[in-house]
Specification:
The chain has about 325 residues and is mainly β. It contains two helices and 27 strands. It starts with 12 loop residues before the first strand and ends with a strand.
Length: about 325
């Protein structure tokens, strides 16, 4: 077992990090991925607090940190901008309305960066074009996935469920299915794969497959409802499990793979017969939370290590690039 590499800010090293574990399947020879390449880059960032959200915007990382306050249960949010070498660019002013958001997402859409409240009131803020602060804007919804045929939207209402919406670009017809709560959409051929996670109560994860959105229930695309969809028509459930967390799912070699972790470590797995089969184990423990899917297929996630360090993870095919924050 290799030791976790600590690499100085200016140094970078590629390591073949991890060992393959035989999946619990008779089809093991079919699901072994190519060699996983792991890059660990340590960034010395003089900031206190826990990393909350991160996105890649205009080739820089926009990173939101949260720290506890002494006399209130609310946290204080601070955003900084780093380039991909970890060099500090600037601070971003976070207004009071964002400070008070308990649930929010950072979203990059049409070359703009937004902070969007992720439940109920759903206020939207957009980053100023020439100044590093956010301005309140009219609320809007953002597609979590787009292709030539559909704009795909999602909603999450916690224990009240969630919905995945397909809007046909040509016909303008809308379709929906129950999906609690969508984190990322992947596409292989004509099939759409939706990975879900809800952290309430015992928490659970699921992965859905939708081959023909037209077979779903027609929808009025009501984003104001606080109830998730009740329809499962046209949906194949690949896995649905309680007490288990899938950090994200991604496509490599035309196969859907899943990043997940448990008490024993972090793994890449493939779903076979409604079970997740580990095909790769990392040599160091971490947990990750999906943040962003780029148009070229790369994904950005926050990650957390047992030594209480935070980090940024970029996934690109078989490449896993960790930026560990010191």
């Amino acid at each position: 077992m290799k030791r976790f590499l600590v690499i100085t800010f200016y140094s970078i090293a590629f390591i073949t990090c991890g060992t393959k574990t035989e999946p619990k399947s008779d089809n093991a020879s079919l699901i072994k991925p190519k060699e996983i390449r792991v890059l660990v880059d340590t960034l010395n960032i003089p900031i206190t607090g826990s990393l909350s959200k991160v996105v890649l915007f205009r080739d820089n990382f926009y990173v939101m940190f949260e720290t506890s306050r002494e006399n209130t249960s609310e946290s204080f949010k601070k955003m900084i901008v780093l380039n991909q070498k970890g060099q500090f660019i600037e601070d971003v002013f976070v207004p009071k309305e964002i400070q008070e958001m308990p649930h929010y997402d950072l979203i990059v859409d049409n070359d703009s960066l937004y902070v969007k409240e992720s439940q109920f009131e759903k206020l939207n803020f957009v980053l100023g074009e020439y100044v590093a602060d956010f301005k309140l804007m009219q609320s809007k919804e953002f597609a979590i996935f787009k292709d030539d045929n559909y704009n795909i939207y999602s909603s999450c209402n916690g224990e009240f469920g969630g919905t995945i919406y397909f809007q046909n670009i040509k016909t303008k017809k809308n379709y929906e299915a129950a999906s609690t709560c969508p984190t990322v959409v992947n596409k292989i051929g004509n099939d759409y794969y939706i990975t879900n996670y809800m952290g309430h109560m015992n928490h659970f994860a699921s992965v859905l497959k939708i081959s023909d959105p037209v077979k779903l229930e027609q929808s009025d695309l009501d984003f104001k409802t606080q109830q998730g969809s009740q329809f499962n028509k046209g949906v194949e459930i690949l896995i649905d499990t309680i007490g288990f967390y899938i950090s994200t799912s991604f496509v490599t070699d035309n196969r859907l793979l899943n990043l997940y972790s448990d008490k024993q470590g972090a793994y890449i797995g493939e779903i076979i017969n409604k079970k997740i089969n580990p095909v790769y184990k990392f040599d160091f423990a971490f947990s990750a939370f999906f943040s962003q899917q780029l148009s070229d297929g790369r994904q950005i996630a926050t990650c957390y290590f047992p030594d209480k360090k935070n980090g940024i993870l970029m996934i690109s095919g078989n490449d896993f690039h960790f930026y560990k924050l010191q």
